[in-house]
Amino acid sequence: MRKACVIGWPIEHSRSPIIHGYWLKSLSIDGSYEKVAVRPENAHAFLRTLGKSGFAGCNVTVPLKEIAFQTADEKDASAVAVAAANTIWLEGDKICAANTDTYGFMTHLSTTVPDWNERDKPVLILGAGGAARAIVYGFLQAGVGKVQVANRTKERAEALGSHFGPRVKIVDWYDRFNAVCDASVIVNTTTIGMKGEGSLEMNFANADDQTVVADIVYVPLETGFLAKARARGLRTVDGLGMLLHQAVPGFEKWFGARPTVTPELRALIVADVEAST
Ligand code: ATR
């Protein structure tokens, strides 16, 4: 039986076991996927002995993504771009790492709004943490000419800008309201809007009718940010699809079959989110 897991500290909140459990069952694979609570100081040793513990690999969540990246022997381009890894698998005695948040976000965006990139306009990213890095990298890879980044702490946005080069432009946090006019896609990558954490102040009145608005927060499923965009008549992309799609590459590495993000899987997670809110 193939075994995989998700590690983090804490780990109780993780919905990854629901996703992988659904795929194991629907594909009739004899495998398991469990949650393992790993303290940051033990993460390196845990990953080094992953194979000995019988695991084919694991997902990694906060606060262990940077440690996982540093521990890995081989890293994919997205993990290098973000300097953090969320998916680990073994090749012989080598630990391989990927960051599948880029894939997850871009796949969900393209699936939901296939024509998002038809107009030659900048995108606007709010936030400059690890998730922002993964998404900025995705837009650059997709050929977007200008990626604007606004973050409350400007130094962090500037660090992100110098990491990715001249196609990334920094916008003052309070200028985000003006940057809306010019944007083809606007993404909230901040943690604001998560259950009980207020709502990100934004005004979409001056946005183009074709603008797409995305959030990576998925609890609640429709954040205040997305609700405002929807009320303005804009197309919206929720955070749940990113969670579902980012899980696909790991499952394929560990269990040898490429799973599909189905409406039934989505409904399972929606029910779980609704039960918790
Ligand atoms: P992740 O790696 O998951 O992206 P993170 O590194 O903790 O998480 O980043 C969280 C992001 O949310 C940051 O851009 C943070 O802004 P700062 O860099 O200024 O801290 C942003 N954020 C969180 N709470 C915020 C708030 N109340 N107002 C504005 N931005 C906030």
Give an overview in words.
The protein is α/β, with parallel strands linked by helices. Helix content is 39%, strand content 19%. The chain is built from twelve helices and twelve strands. The strands form two sheets. The protein has a six-stranded mixed beta sheet, sandwiched between helices. The protein has a six-stranded parallel beta sheet with strand order 9-8-7-10-11-12, with helices on both faces. Helix 5 (101-112) packs across helix 10. The longest helix has 14 residues, at 263-276. The structure holds 2'-monophosphoadenosine-5'-diphosphate. 2'-monophosphoadenosine-5'-diphosphate is lined by residues 127-132, 151-153, 156, 189-192.
List the helices and strands and how they pair.
Elements: E1 2-8, H1 16-26, E2 31-37, H2 40-48, E3 57-60, H3 65-71, E4 74-75, H4 77-82, E5 87-91, E6 94-98, H5 101-112, E7 123-126, H6 130-141, E8 147-150, H7 154-164, E9 168-171, H8 176-179, E10 185-188, E11 212-215, H9 224-231, E12 235-237, H10 240-246, H11 248-255, H12 263-276
Parallel strand pairs: 1-2, 1-3, 4-6, 7-8, 7-10, 8-9, 10-11, 11-12
Antiparallel strand pairs: 3-5, 5-6
Helix pairs in contact: 5-6, 5-10
Enumerate the spans where pLDDT stays under 50 for 5 or more consecutive residues: none
Helix content: 25-40%
Ligands bound here? Answer: 2'-monophosphoadenosine-5'-diphosphate
- Distance from N terminus to C terminus (CA atoms, Å) equals 35 Å
How many individual β-strands? 12
Instruction: Kindly name the structural category.
Output: alpha/beta
